[in-house]
Amino acid sequence: MLVNADVKALEIVCAAHLFNDKVMQQEIIDKVDIHENNRVAFSLPTRLIAKTLVFRILYGGTEYAFVQDPEFMKTSTRLDYWRGAIERFYTKYDGIRQGHEELLRKVMLTGGYSSPTGRSYRFSTYPDTRGNPRWPRTNILNYLVQGFGADLMLLYRVSFWNKIRRMNIPCVPAATVHDSLLVDTPAPFVDQVVTQLNASASDIQGNFFKLFKSKFDLPITVEIEVGSNYKDMDKI
Question: Distance between alpha carbon 25 and the CA centroid of its chain, in Å?
C-alpha cells in the first residue's frame, strides 16, 4: 500500500518563522484558513487560486504579474487594484514586509545571505530592458523560504526513517516531492506507518534545536492519504 504524508502550508510556516511575522504565526497556531479568507476577500473562484495569490506576494510578485494572469484578470485587470491588494497583504503581515525589505537590503549590500540552517545564497544583478542593473527580487525572496522548507523536510524524512528502522516496520520510502513523503508498505503495517509519520512531524521542532541550536516553535502537521496506487488515494 502507498501512504503519502503532505506537510500542510509548509511555505507559509517557513515564511512566518523566517520573517518572524507575529500575525501569520498566530494564524498558523489558531489553524486559520489563510487561503480561504483570501479567496473570499478577493472574490477568487477557488482556494487554489487564492494560494497562488499568497505565494506570489511572498515571493516578490508585483501587480503586473496579477494583471497578466488569466485567473486573476477575472477579478480585476487594473494595476492599482492589485497594487492595493499587495499593500493590504503587507499591512496585515508587517513582519513579512520588514523581512522582505531587510533581505533585499542585505543582498544589495553584500551580494547574498545565509539561512538559519547554514545554506548560503549569492546573487548578482542582471540588465533590464534598458540595460540598467536589477537584482532578481523574486529569487532573493523565494530561495530562503524554499531552502528552509527543504531542510525541514529533510529532518522529517530522517526522523521517520529512524523510527521505522528501530521498529522493524517493512516500509520503503518511494518518493519525496517538495512537501510530501510517499512510502510503500504492506497493508497490515499501514496504521503503524501512519502513526510514525505523524510522530515524525512532531519531532521536527526538537530536532531542529538539536542540530541548529535555534528555536523553531511553529506546529508542523501532515495530511495523510492511503491507497493501492498513486491515483486512488483516500484521506485518513
Answer: 13
Asked whether the beta carbons of 34 and 12 are under 8 A apart, the reply is yes
Model pLDDT for residues 159-174, shown as the tens digit of each residue: 999 999 999 999 988 8
In angstroms, the CA 236 to CA 234 distance is 6
Q: Collapsing DSSP states into helix, strand and coil, what is residue 23?
A: helix
Block residue for cell numbers 521536527: 204
* pLDDT value for 43: 80
Cell numbers that stand for 100 in this block:
522582505
C-alpha to C-alpha distance for 63 and 77, rounded to whole angstroms: 10
Distance, CA of 71 to CA of 48 (rounded, Å): 11
Pairing of strands 120-122, 112-114: antiparallel
Reading the block at residue 119, the C-alpha cell is 545554506
193, three cell numbers: 506507518
Other residues' Cβ atoms within 10 Å of the Cβ of residue 7: 21
Cα distance between residue 200 and residue 161, in whole Å = 9
For residue 175, report the phi and psi dihedrals to the nearest 5 degrees. Answer: -165, 155
d(CA 194, CA 222): 10
Pairing type for strands 180-184 and 2-7 reads antiparallel
Is a pLDDT exceeding 90 seen at residue 200?
Answer: yes
The residue whose grid cell reads 525572496 is 141
Do residues 14 and 199 make contact, with C-beta atoms less than 8 angstroms apart? no
Q: Alpha-carbon torsion 148, 114, 217, 104, what sign?
A: negative
